[in-house]
From TrEMBL:
This is DinB family protein. Keywords: Metal-binding. Gene3D superfamilies: dinb family like domain. The lineage of its organism: Bacteria, Pseudomonadati, Bacteroidota, Chitinophagia, Chitinophagales. InterPro entries: DinB (IPR007837), DinB/YfiT-like (IPR034660). The keyword DNA repair does not apply. It holds the Pfam family DinB. Belongs to the DinB family.
């Protein structure tokens, strides 16, 4: 009889999850880079917001949400970001948010992933569900950016080109 203890490996580690998320952020950054400057701030389809506004939301939700998870300081949702006036400003804000994600995410303990948190004073879910929402939100809004680019006659980056 074998009495050896088997240690099961999780399906995905926190490091692998962070790397997958950063891959999505890399791809979204490529979408921002492809946008013509004027259209980034003004073009929309079917009444949807311009892509810059979708990006501001993604920045606020992800970096702002992780900051709230780590610090416990809950602040209302605010994504106006008046300092973003050009594509270069948006890319800088995007890169800064990605760096914040790289700093905050590894600070989440295994236990913390299962704690409820009331992010932005609006959404009370376990931390892992909030992080899944951050990633889903980015994929959703990036897809809107793909629709905009195609409507403008611009080939978007390949969806699998995340690195």
């Amino acid at each position: 009889m074998n009495t050896a203890t088997t240690i099961e490996r999780p399906i995905i580690s926190t490091e692998e999850l962070l790397n997958a998320w950063k891959g999505h952020r890399n791809l979204t950054r490529k979408v921002i880079e492809v946008f013509p400057e004027k259209d980034l701030f003004s073009f929309s389809v079917g009444g949807m917001r311009p892509f810059v506004d979708l990006c501001k939301e993604m920045i606020t939700v992800s970096a702002g949400g992780l900051k709230q998870i780590i610090t416990g300081v809950i602040e209302p949702f605010e994504d106006a970001m008046p300092q973003i006036k050009e594509k270069a400003d948006l890319l800088q804000a995007w890169d800064e948010a990605t760096e914040q994600i790289s700093i905050y995410f590894p600070q989440i303990s295994a236990e913390k992933f299962h704690e409820d948190i009331n992010l932005f004073g609006e959404y009370k879910f376990p931390v892992i569900e909030n992080i899944q929402y951050f990633i889903d939100n980015e994929i959703h809004h990036r897809a809107q950016g793909y629709v905009y680019l195609r409507a403008l006659g611009i080939e978007p980056p390949f969806f699998w080109d995340r690195y």
